């Protein structure tokens, strides 16, 4: 197990190089000159344009730019944004906020997703199951920007139960509503995954055996059915953590959360390579770690699975 | 297993590996598989040989076609496909003739659902938008299932370095922002001047497969330790054939769930891309595009958003029901009779 | 300042709003329906003068240096923490701030005297050198300041701004004594004094030149407010507190201004409704239909010095010669501006009658030829037929209108406009969406448009010339459509060297008659500001450029 974990960490090196190279190239290949946009459409003196282009290494060929980036990286210099702030500071501010948001969303979708999924699975075809299905459909068919807007308007403005947007410092309490909105789509996935798994497992031989030997229904459900149904759910949740962090663009916009999603979105639009590369690298790290945890959980959930 | 090749003793693959990698346990399990003729299994096979052999899929189809869930969803899906293929049969209104003097008006004669923010007929736009939406949803899902499913199954089943490489590639693709990729892919010389439904499908596939790969990998890892897999291997089926014949079919449930939900998510994702200017050109109508454009009138005219969302919901619902029915049919334990 | 006020997430790149804060006066000119019109003058509201008010903003895109701030987010902070020689009142007329006098006899040589005894918040005195050094710093190529072209009229600019130039002093600027300096321009420009209220012309203390980067993070200004300790929390908020040393006309009537950074106006609007934000200077498109009912008399709708246009580049083959001119006119007549204003903007704009803005001194809505801007389907069809007779439109060619759509509010009106053109003329018109502003700028800058493009202008300073010279003069910096007409250039030069403002305005309006024939761009409408405020504040007014007069707002 330890060896397995160590190996996984070693794999980070090629993953990191691959990801930075790929992302650096992608941003490099986006059409449009970022310096031209800095002027906001106003004229820019050629000298200023040349100076700024040189300042961000944009006058150099792609390989040179990337190698320079790596070189700075070795001295823990992540580069600068177009506004002259160190990228490490920018990410340092945005990351904790998004991490809080994503973890809350994950807990929300895991908790309610598994509970609703288990009940729906055990009562397949009954009223509860159908209700959950319809609710999931709404979440799938109505985009986040609409659901988020409605929740914000109703809960934040009309009922005034919470602030419509997140206050400076992004306290946990302000993040409840955004986390709920962020977790909604994934909630639909978790419910249906859990439900299907439970349906598969509830007729399994070991469940019959457990029931036959007189275990309480509660114990049968929790220990035998649910635990054995968790592999697809855990897989999904692990992969989702990273998506929640990087893909919260819409939710962060609606609730004005100064997080990673917005940062990433804006820096892509601006063509601010160092920021994009750094954010994506952090996300890759999150994915690798989350998947490591998921793989270790597999072995715990299903003792037949072994890692050597 | 009627045509079993010459029986041989097969050493479980894991044994050698475990020793190599220095597992703590010193327990050693001897596996011996008896000659086929010596096992009671032979009798079971004999009985089967007289009947018409039914594959797992044929059995599933038998039970499927009797299920009302399946029949309803199949009819709905056929209807949606008919709308997508022959939109002219369902409306005579030109969905591109829009005038602001009709903007946001309610239903009127010949315009059963009213008008959009730009004064276009909502009903006609839903009918004509079906093609792009259904194509995007369906084909993205198909491609994602093929690519993600294949890579995930290989990674989960074979493990080792193949898993490491595939899983880490998945990690990188997972972390790539869809917008960044879309902006670039849509601007490739080949796509730039003829953006079409297929460019959207390709983009969404590139960013959709990692999720399915991961789910498949998890399901395969779970399934490959099952007794029937060991039995299949013991009976001499090659490793790859076991994967295809036994492991994958038994890992389908979560794949079906993810695929049917994602179908709807992809249709909406197309809207996001269009919203960002990297999706379909404005001349191609789609539900997603109409949903995104309706955001602006959400507070005053929610119906503009509701109708395309409803069309999308019905489509997704039919695929989810179909998925459920297929899954039930594939699972012998939940099959009745 | 183009493309401003268009962006949702993107005010960063999109905007260059030169938020020049005006002083005094009522913001009730034009089509104001504002409750603000009834409010009293700065500081006179009798409200709570210690209340800290919150207002929406975007993250400043650069360090807070005058010559490097070219967008709204930084601009509105700069205008509160700095003050220049003049500022503009609510009608856009210049009022002396630090200037004692600005004198000239030939419109080319100016002598500027400044008030003595003024200080920066770091204790340094504001002297003639503070201005001369700041302007030289802003112009010099080696400092790469975005606004450097603002100094191009000053003699010697070409030397300091040349690529790789190490020169950093313009010969046109000379310090006479502590409180006097002279400016020599390379040619006569009568509207030079008008420009001096723009952000780029603010003074800087010595500390700024030693470490511009550190200064930009924590500037020492001379305006009505100063940055609170650690007040700039990036991407979250910018906190300003009153500057006790300030003695100019824009005396703060409140206990400070906190700019909350928003990435969408929708979020800010929800905050406003929940009384979680005091002042919002732009109602998002999704709320335009509702804000008057939501806010009642806590809202404003008034024109400001900006317009929206559609550029039809002169390099397009279909728009050459006489046929091209007829086609432009046909397209202009095919657009029903009022219908779009009513249905897309819900009355938030005013149909254009010429190329400038009604809040600018000298504006006329009756320039001969302006009927080409009125919707006339039959007239449009006729003009198009005449053009077809000269050279036919390529079969199957779609008339595209290119626009970046990374900001809210562009897509809807361009789609509506494209529908109108398609419905009236025998061609198909369509929005050509571009995902990012930087790509849009690159396409426009490299003259690679294949059709029309969205454009617009917000005045840097209140003058007719600012709407004409930089945009349509031959070879001018923002002449994206490559328009060139010697007759128009001649009129511009005449107007600039006119002896009186009235005379100049008359000539500028004559020059617009030429533009109305050629239509280098199709004017669409004048921008309006729709804003609102919470129940916790009073005395909210908006200036000539659409920016709230933050210093005058009081708490309740």
Question: Your description of this structure?
Answer:
The complex is a heterotrimer of chains A (308), B (337) and C (556). By secondary structure, chain A is mainly alpha-helical. Chain A is built from 13 helices and no strands. Chain A is globular. Chain B has 14 helices and no strands. With 337 residues, chain B is mostly helical. Chain C is α+β, with helices and mostly antiparallel strands. Chain C folds into 2 domains: 7-225 and 534-555, D-Maltodextrin-Binding Protein, domain 2 (3-Layer(aba) Sandwich); 306-529, Dipeptide-binding Protein, domain 3. Chain C has helices at residues 11-14, 72-81, 128-139, 157-160, 192-195, 206-210, 212-217, 265-273, 291-295, 321-334, 337-343, 377-390, 410-424, 437-445, 464-472, 486-496, 501-518, and strands spanning 22-23, 52-57, 86-89, 94-96, 99-104, 109-114, 173-177, 180-184, 225-233, 237-242, 256-261, 279-280, 299-311, 350-351, 398-404, 428-434, 452-458, 521-533, 537-538, 554-555. Chain C is globular and about 70 Å long.
Task: Give a quick summary of the entry.
The complex is a heterotrimer of chains A (308), B (337) and C (556). Chain B is 64% helix and 0% strand.
What are the SSEs and their pairings?
The complex is a heterotrimer of chains A (308), B (337) and C (556).
Chain A: H1 2-29, H2 34-38, H3 46-55, H4 62-74, H5 87-122, H6 127-141, H7 144-158, H8 176-202, H9 205-212, H10 217-246, H11 249-254, H12 260-270, H13 273-301
Helix pairs in contact in A: 1-13, 5-6, 5-8, 5-10, 5-13, 6-8, 7-8, 8-10, 9-10, 10-13, 12-13
Chain B: H1 13-20, H2 41-50, H3 56-64, H4 68-85, H5 122-158, H6 160-175, H7 178-185, H8 189-192, H9 197-223, H10 227-234, H11 239-247, H12 252-275, H13 287-293, H14 302-330
Chain C: H1 11-14, E1 22-23, E2 52-57, H2 72-81, E3 86-89, E4 94-96, E5 99-104, E6 109-114, H3 128-139, H4 157-160, E7 173-177, E8 180-184, H5 192-195, H6 206-210, H7 212-217, E9 225-233, E10 237-242, E11 256-261, H8 265-273, E12 279-280, H9 291-295, E13 299-311, H10 321-334, H11 337-343, E14 350-351, H12 377-390, E15 398-404, H13 410-424, E16 428-434, H14 437-445, E17 452-458, H15 464-472, H16 486-496, H17 501-518, E18 521-533, E19 537-538, E20 554-555
Parallel strand pairs in C: 1-3, 2-11, 15-16, 15-17
Antiparallel strand pairs in C: 3-4, 5-6, 6-8, 7-8, 9-10, 10-11, 12-18, 13-17, 13-18, 14-18, 19-20
Helix pairs in contact in C: 10-12, 15-16, 16-17
């Amino acid at each position: 197990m330890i060896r397995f974990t160590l190996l996984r960490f070693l794999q980070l090196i090629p993953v990191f190089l691959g990801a930075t190279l790929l992302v650096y190239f992608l941003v490099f290949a986006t059409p449009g000159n970022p310096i031209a946009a800095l002027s906001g459409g106003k004229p820019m003196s050629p000298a200023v344009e040349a100076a700024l282009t040189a300042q961000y290494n944009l006058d150099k060929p792609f390989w040179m730019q990337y190698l320079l980036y790596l070189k700075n990286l070795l001295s823990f210099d992540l580069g600068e944004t177009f506004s002259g702030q160190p990228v490490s500071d920018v990410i340092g501010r945005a990351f904790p906020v998004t991490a809080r948001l994503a973890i809350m969303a994950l807990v929300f979708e895991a908790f309610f997703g598994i509970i609703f999924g288990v009940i729906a699975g055990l009562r397949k075809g009954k009223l509860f199951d159908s209700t959950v299905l319809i609710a999931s459909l709404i979440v799938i068919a109505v985009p986040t920007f609409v659901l988020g807007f409605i929740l914000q308007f109703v809960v934040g403005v009309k009922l005034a139960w919470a602030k419509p947007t997140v206050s400076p410092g992004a306290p946990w309490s302000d993040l409840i509503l955004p986390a709920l909105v962020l977790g909604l789509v994934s909630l639909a996935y978790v419910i249906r995954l859990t439900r299907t798994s439970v349906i598969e497992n509830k007729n399994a031989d070991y469940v019959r055996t457990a029931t036959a030997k007189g275990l309480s229904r509660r114990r049968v459900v929790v220990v035998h059915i649910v635990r054995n149904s968790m592999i697809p759910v855990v897989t999904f949740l692990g992969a989702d953590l990273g998506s929640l962090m990087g893909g919260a663009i819409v939710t962060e916009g609606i609730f004005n959360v100064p997080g990673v999603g917005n940062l990433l979105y804006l820096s892509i639009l601006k063509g601010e390579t160092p920021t994009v590369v750094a954010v994506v690298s952090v996300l890759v790290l999150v994915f690798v770690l989350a998947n490591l945890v998921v793989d270790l959980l597999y072995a715990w959930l299903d003792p037949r699975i072994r890692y050597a | 297993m009627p045509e079993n090749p010459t029986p041989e003793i097969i050493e479980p693959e894991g044994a050698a590996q475990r020793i190599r990698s220095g597992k703590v346990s010193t327990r050693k399990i001897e596996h011996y598989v008896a000659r086929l003729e010596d096992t009671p299994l032979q009798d079971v096979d004999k009985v089967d040989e007289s009947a018409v052999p039914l594959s797992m899929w044929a059995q599933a189809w038998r039970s499927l076609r009797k299920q009302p869930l399946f029949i309803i969803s199949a009819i709905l899906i056929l209807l949606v496909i008919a709308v997508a293929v022959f939109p002219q049969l369902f409306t005579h209104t030109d969905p591109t003739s829009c005038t602001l003097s009709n903007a946001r008006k309610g239903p009127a004669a010949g315009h059963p659902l009213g008008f959009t923010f730009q004064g276009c007929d909502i009903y006609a736009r839903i009918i004509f938008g079906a093609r792009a939406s259904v194509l995007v949803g369906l084909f993205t899902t198909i491609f994602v299932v093929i690519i993600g499913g294949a890579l995930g199954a290989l990674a989960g089943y074979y493990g080792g370095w193949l898993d490491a490489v595939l899983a880490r590639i998945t990690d990188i693709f997972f972390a790539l922002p869809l917008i960044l990729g879309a902006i670039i892919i849509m601007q490739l010389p080949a796509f730039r001047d003829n953006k079409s439904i297929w460019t959207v499908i390709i983009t969404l596939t590139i960013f959709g497969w990692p999720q399915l790969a991961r789910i498949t990998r998890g399901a395969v890892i779970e399934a490959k330790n099952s007794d029937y897999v060991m039995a299949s291997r013991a009976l001499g089926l090659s490793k790859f054939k076991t994967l295809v014949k036994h492991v994958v079919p038994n890992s389908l449930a979560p794949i079906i769930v993810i695929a049917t939900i994602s179908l709807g998510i992809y249709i909406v994702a197309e809207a996001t891309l269009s919203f960002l200017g990297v999706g379909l050109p404005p001349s191609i109508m789609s539900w997603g595009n109409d949903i995104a454009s309706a955001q602006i009138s959400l507070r005053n005219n929610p119906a503009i958003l509701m109708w395309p969302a409803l069309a999308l919901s019905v489509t997704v619902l039919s695929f989810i029901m179909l998925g459920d029915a297929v899954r039930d049919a594939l699972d012998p334990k939940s099959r009745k009779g | 300042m183009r493309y401003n006020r268009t962006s949702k997430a993107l005010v960063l790149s999109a905007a260059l709003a030169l938020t020049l804060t005006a002083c005094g006066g009522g913001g009730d000119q034009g089509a104001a329906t504002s409750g603000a019109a009834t409010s009293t003058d700065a500081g006179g509201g009798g409200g709570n003068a210690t209340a800290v008010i919150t207002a929406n903003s975007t993250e400043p895109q650069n360090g807070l240096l005058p010559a490097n701030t070219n967008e709204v987010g930084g601009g509105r902070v700069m205008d509160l923490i700095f003050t220049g020689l003049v500022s503009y009142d609510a009608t856009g007329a210049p009022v002396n701030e630090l200037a004692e006098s600005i004198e000239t006899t030939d419109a080319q040589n100016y002598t500027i005297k400044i008030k003595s005894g003024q200080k920066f918040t770091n204790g340094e005195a504001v002297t003639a050198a503070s201005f001369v050094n700041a302007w030289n710093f802003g112009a010099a190529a080696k400092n790469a300041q975005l606004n450097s072209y603002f100094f191009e009229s000053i003699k010697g600019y070409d030397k300091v701004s040349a690529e790789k130039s190490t020169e950093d002093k313009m010969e046109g600027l000379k310090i006479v004594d502590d409180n006097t300096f002279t400016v020599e321009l390379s040619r006569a420009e009568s509207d030079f004094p008008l420009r001096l209220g723009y952000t780029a012309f603010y003074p800087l203390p010595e500390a700024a030149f030693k470490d511009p980067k550190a200064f930009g993070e924590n500037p020492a200004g001379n305006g009505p407010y100063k940055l609170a300790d650690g007040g700039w929390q990036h991407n979250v908020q910018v906190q300003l507190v009153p500057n006790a040393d300030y003695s100019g006309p824009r005396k703060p009537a409140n206990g400070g201004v906190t700019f909350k950074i928003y990435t969408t106006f929708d979020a800010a609007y929800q905050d406003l409704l929940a009384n979680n934000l005091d002042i919002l200077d732009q109602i998002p498109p999704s709320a335009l239909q509702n804000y008057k009912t939501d806010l009642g008399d806590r809202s404003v709708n008034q024109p400001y010095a900006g317009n929206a246009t559609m550029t039809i580049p002169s390099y397009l083959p279909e728009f050459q010669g006489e046929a091209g001119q007829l086609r432009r006119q046909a397209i202009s007549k095919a657009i029903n501006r009022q219908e779009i204003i009513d249905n897309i903007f819900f009355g938030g704009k005013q149909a254009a009658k010429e190329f400038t803005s009604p809040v600018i001194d000298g504006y006329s809505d009756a320039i001969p030829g302006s009927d080409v801007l009125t919707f006339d389907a039959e007239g449009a069809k006729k003009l198009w037929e005449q053009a077809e007779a000269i050279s036919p439109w390529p079969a199957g060619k779609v008339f595209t209108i290119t626009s970046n759509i990374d900001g809210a509010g562009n897509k809807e009106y361009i789609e509506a406009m494209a529908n109108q053109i398609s419905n009236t003329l025998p061609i198909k018109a369509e929005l050509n969406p571009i995902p990012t502003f930087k790509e849009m700028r690159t396409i426009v800058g490299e003259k690679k448009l294949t059709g029309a493009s969205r454009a617009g202008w917000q005045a840097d300073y209140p003058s007719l010339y600012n709407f004409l010279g930089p945009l349509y003069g031959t070879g001018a910096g923002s002449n994206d459509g490559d328009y060139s007409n010697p007759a128009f250039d001649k009129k511009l030069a005449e107007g600039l060297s006119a002896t009186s403002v009235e005379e100049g305005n008359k000539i500028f309006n004559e020059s617009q008659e030429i533009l109305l024939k050629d239509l280098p761009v199709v004017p669409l409408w004048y921008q309006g500001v729709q804003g609102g405020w919470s129940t916790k504040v009073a005395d909210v007014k908006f200036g000539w450029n659409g920016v709230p007069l933050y210093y005058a707002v009081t708490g309740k």
